[in-house]
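# step 3/5: fold
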Amino acid sequence: MDTLNLGILAHVDAGKTSLTERLLYAARVIDHVGRVDDGDTQTDTLALERRRGITIKSAVVSFEVDGTVVNLIDTPGHPDFIAEVERVLDVLDGVVLVVSAVEGVQPQTRVLMRTLRRLGLPVLIFINKIDRSGARSEALLGEIAAKLGIEVVPMGSVRDLGTKNAAFVPYPGAAAEVVEPLADHDDLLLTTYLADRPMTAERVRRELAEQTRTGEVHPVFFGSATTGAGVAELTAGIVALLPTAGGDVDAEPSGSVFKIERGPDGQKVALIRMFNGSLRIRDRMRFGRAEDRVTRISVVERGAGTSAEAVTAGRIARVWGLAHARIGDPIGRRRGAPTAVFAPPTLETVVIPARPAEAARLRQALTELAEQDPLIDVRPPAPRPQCPSTAKYKRRSSRQPWPRSTGCWSPSRRPPPSISSGLWGRVRL
């Protein structure tokens, strides 16, 4: 059975999580479509996510369509949580980029599309919220092409745009709206089209799939995650147009750790994607100088996960026992050097425990937080500078304190916060 690892990306509030719910419902994985406002969606499981109505952590769910297992990763849309998006890009086979039919192309949409094009990931575009007042279709296609700098292929039109009855109407397989953008990239197809010779829908579909996978064109679907309009056509497009995972099950193991979680009991759980080979229970993995042994595997399947003896090429799984694993670490043979696709943060903050006796607990909590977010860099404070002797200090006038750059202070004054006795480290945010 083929496997497709799919990412859902968008600007915040474009409808990623709602689309995820609708895809799971259409695949009969769930029998009720959760709502972000009600806090009952499958992928927003944190209390803060349910309370705020936003996605903070990426989440993996799975469904099956026409013999293909789709591992779907729902990602945050808010720029503050861009690290959650960055870490999953290396494990994806394709992406659905969600754009609001009302708001159109937004700042994060541009950032994401630039990154996806640089990585060479095939992208389908889903224009959501066609049932909302103020929704656009034809004008938005031009905006997407102009602002994102891409070639779009509309897969249909919209009926009753901006109403509760809005519906997606697919174009016939060999419609001019589909063929013309493809002909710009294929001379043989262009010759056939200009000669007005007949073309089969199957030939157009093959050419569309090929150009989508190479990133030459980006098919655009319209719909509404709320009403379900256009979701069936998008689901069919995901399976037909995006490449599957591939990989050689019998090859040397090769995979990547792309997420770290903590279980209810505090145990470390690594989410991995296998590219080749397989990883089995009791296998030993080396991370730096430490060696860990796999104690449990849960393969993402039919919703959340299923216990298994091994995870094979192309699949995603949660793995227990890898105590020393960090995000970006290879499993077995390294597939390639991990690439940072977003600018590193520049803000630093000093964290001081409110109660000095709990400094060790604070350090442990921040260390676990840094495990789950590679853009957080926890480190101890710099050594306190050597200050002149007290006798020498007394010879200075009280009106001439030591320069701030020396890190020294008058015994009669409180030390600056950056070298407070309660400080144990800094966090890069």
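# step 4/5: annotate
The longest strand covers residues 2-10.
# step 5/5: archive (pending)
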